[in-house]
Design brief:
This protein has 151 residues and is of the alpha/beta class. The protein has helices at residues 9-17, 28-42, 76-86, 102-110, 118-129, and strands at residues 4-8, 45-50, 65-69, 95-98, 114-116. Helix 4 (102-110) links the parallel strand 4 and strand 5. Helix 1 packs across helix 5 and helix 2 (28-42) crosses helix 5. The radius of gyration is 19 Å and the shape is globular.
């Protein structure tokens, strides 16, 4: 079952800027490219919505990532609401809205769309950015103590 992520971009970017742990994702380009890698690795469909046209044409949409900008005068919440309505009812169980907006989150839950706080998505992106620990390793960077040194 493929996950469908609908993301309020500036909600997540602002959350990242308030957190030392997630700070790198406050950079728009790094955030979008991390979403692309995450979507490809998980075979998810990700739609990220920006308020306004500031980033229009800056990012290429791909098979797994769609980058949308709202029209002048339109809010990301309005576009996200429309996108949720367009998801077939049978697919809504696979959909996740990432937003801090309580009214939008309540609407999503009423339609059977799961909701997630921006910090939860940022944790997932952080985990995906970290290199995997070598097999048998501890995942920590420790100096190698060569038992043959000095022989």
């Amino acid at each position: 079952m493929k996950e469908i992520l609908l993301i309020d971009a500036f909600n997540v970017i602002h959350a990242a800027s308030r957190s030392a742990r997630h700070g790198p994702f406050s950079d728009v380009k790094r955030f979008v490219y991390a979403l692309e890698r995450h979507a490809s690795a998980r075979e998810s469909r990700v739609t990220v919505v920006f308020d306004g046209t500031r980033f229009e044409g800056e990012f290429q949409s791909s098979r797994s990532l769609e980058v949308l900008c709202t029209k002048p005068g339109e809010k990301a919440d309005t576009l996200l609401e429309r996108l949720m309505r367009e998801i077939q009812p049978a697919e809504r169980i696979q959909a996740v809205l990432v937003s801090e907006d309580n009214a939008l989150r309540a609407m999503a839950m009423g339609w059977g769309v799961r909701v997630q706080k921006p910090a939860e998505l940022l944790d997932r992106l952080n985990a995906a950015e970290k290199p995997a620990a070598p097999q048998g390793g501890t995942g920590r960077s420790e100096p190698f103590n060569n038992p043959f040194r000095g022989l």
